[in-house]
C-alpha cells in the first residue's frame, strides 16, 4: 500500500484541522459513538478468509471492479464476495452483523441506525463517488427528449397508479401510446432517493411498474420496450448507451442531461446524489483484513468510479476518508435521512467537520 502510505502522510497533516471540529460533529453521531455500543465479534473461521459485501446495485460496479483488482494481487490472501440486494436489503444484512461492508446509494436511515445499535454494529461511513440518477427511454422513442420534475411526479406518485398509463396523459404533444414503467425495487436506495426527489416524499410511489433492485434487469426491460420509461444509476446508462436514450431533466432552470460536467457544475438537480460504502467496525482478526481492503478501496475509488461511469470525488475526499479510517471514526455525518440537492462541495464540508 505505497499509495496509501503517501495518503496517510497527507491525512495525518489534516488531523489538526479536523480534530477541532470533532467535538461539535459528534453531537450528530452520538448513536454510534456512544460507549454503550458494543462491537460484533465473529465466532467462525470462515470470516477470516472472506470479506462479505452486499447492498446497492448502483454502487456494485465500483465495488466489484475494486474487489477484482484487489484479488488479482496474490499477496492479498482473502476472498471478496460482492452481492446485490439493494441498499435497504444490504443494510438489513449489515445491521444484523451478516456482512462486512454495505454498498449504499443513500445515507443510512434512522431506523437502520437503530437496528445497528440494537445489534451492536458500529460502522464507518465513506462517500466514494457521485451519481447522476438517470431517467431513460428506448431509442425508438422519438418524441421525448426531456421531462420536468413535475411530470415525473405526475407519472410516479401513488395517485397515478392505474390512471396515468399513456404518454399523452403526461404531455399533450406526446403520442397516444401506452407508457410502460421500469424502476427500482422497494429494497433499493435508488427507490428511496428517486421517490423523494421526484414525488416529494420518500417511498411514495405507484406500484404498477416493473421493479427490480438489479439495474441490469431494468436496462434489459427498457432496451426491449419502445414504450418504456425507467430510472437507474448513471453507470448503467453509460454501459448501455447503444440501447438506451437518456432524458434531460428540467427542474425549472432548463433541461439538463446527466453527465460528469453537469453534476460537478451543480446543474443536474435534484437527481445528483452521493454514493457510499459502510464498513462494520468489528473488533477481531477480520478487522485487519477488512481495513486493508478499505485502504485499497479508498485509493482506487476515484479512478474506478470514473471508469465505470460515475463522478469521482476530489482528492480532499480521499484524504478525509483516510483520516476517518485511521482514527476509527464511527458514525454518520447525516441525520438518518438523505439530503436532496446535496453538492460535492457540501458533502466535503460535512466530512471535514466529522
Automatic annotation (TrEMBL):
Family: Belongs to the PstS family.
Signal peptide per UniProt: 1-23
Source organism of this protein record: Nostoc cf. edaphicum LEGE 07299
Matching CDD domains: PBP2_phosphate_like_2 (cd13654)
One Pfam family of this chain: PBP_like_2
Cited PANTHER family: PERIPLASMIC PHOSPHATE BINDING COMPONENT OF PHOSPHATE ABC TRANSPORTER, PHOSPHATE-BINDING PROTEIN PSTS
Organism superkingdom: Bacteria
Segments forming domain PBP: 46-299
Name under which the protein is recorded: Phosphate-binding protein
Listed transmembrane segments: none
InterPro entries: PBP_domain, Phos-bd, Phosphate_ABC_transporter
Entry function: Involved in the system for phosphate transport across the cytoplasmic membrane.
